[in-house]
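This part of the workshop introduces the protein records we will be handling. Each record describes a single protein and holds just a pair of labelled lines. Instead of coordinates, the fold is spelled out as a row of discrete tokens. To make this concrete, we reproduce a full record directly below:
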Amino acid sequence: MNMSANALPDVLPEKNPVLSRMGWSAFVLALILVCAVAPVMNLWVPEGSAFHLSTYGVALVGKIMCYAICALAMDLIWGYTGILSLGHGMFFALGGYAMGMYLMRQIGLEGNYKSELPDFMVFLDWKVLPWHWTFSDSFIATLILIVAVPGVVAFVFGYFAFRSRIKGVYFSIITQAMTFAAMLLFFRNETGFGGNNGFTDFKRILDIPLATPSMRMVLFVLTGLCLLGFFLFSKWLIGTKFGRVLQAVRDAESRVMFSGYNPIGFKLTIWTLSAVMCGVAGALYVPQVGIINPSEMSPANSIEIAIWAAVGGRATLVGPIVGAFVVNGAKSWLTVAYPEFWLYVLGGLFIAVTLFLPNGIVGMLKKWKGNRP
């Protein structure tokens, strides 16, 4: 092929699609399951039928989908950027508390003490709402806080941590200390977050009762749509120049700096974005589960998020979602059948994945598929 010095090549490289044909088929199938099949099985299939989706099943799958969003956020920073966070449970809880404050204000005079103040404040002899509850009666303000609070906290923390070039195990330890400190703060009654009991006994959202099957299904569908939307967005993001720089930072950060890029901005952006995703997951989790308390900030919960990503397969996007469903499905069964063995099983699972399946379940399946004749 003859080309002059200024001529363009005959064939320009094609831009990779966000999803392959099979990927789009799976995405559409998941969309149909969330938006059509699940509501039909829950609302219109009679109870007692083998095809009826129980209220417990709706709540369980909805909860696991919230966890899957957190696992997806973990994959963006750990799998694709090489930053292991052991504090993402804090961002999840911050989004949950923002939603919980709104739901507590929705209770109104239906509380045990027939007061505009939440019951725990009346019990503690509070006379007025604390300043940080000012906008908690507005649903629009709550939506903004769900995104803004985890995002701002993550941005401030990440700005100082990344500028100080803290990385590796030191960064992981600091994030774990951060979430532990936040948990201790929220345990204190004087902070106005319900102490060790947290928030519970929610009645309605947007003046619509929460306990009805139709509202539970609406929350289920919204959670599924958010999960699919975040997955599609993450898939697009990783395929952009920004995503390729993130992977370069993961593999050789010093070379990225020598190439003229400043890794701090890239790491700070993806760190903040992953925190916002966890905050949204927490806000969807609270009305479905019906409670939020400081235990959601425990370091153990943040470690579990990393385990979901590792079990499913880092740097795959779909892997952490699979890992969240596999691990939490097993947890739901084992904590009922053999509760005393669950922590041993979880630790053994993490060790087994580290030693024998470093690429997780999805990585193993890809390797098996590649080795087929």
Notes: The radius of gyration is 23 Å. The beta strands are 199-200, 204-205, 208-209, 291-292. Confidence is low (pLDDT under 50) at residues 1-13. The first helix runs from residue 21 to 44.
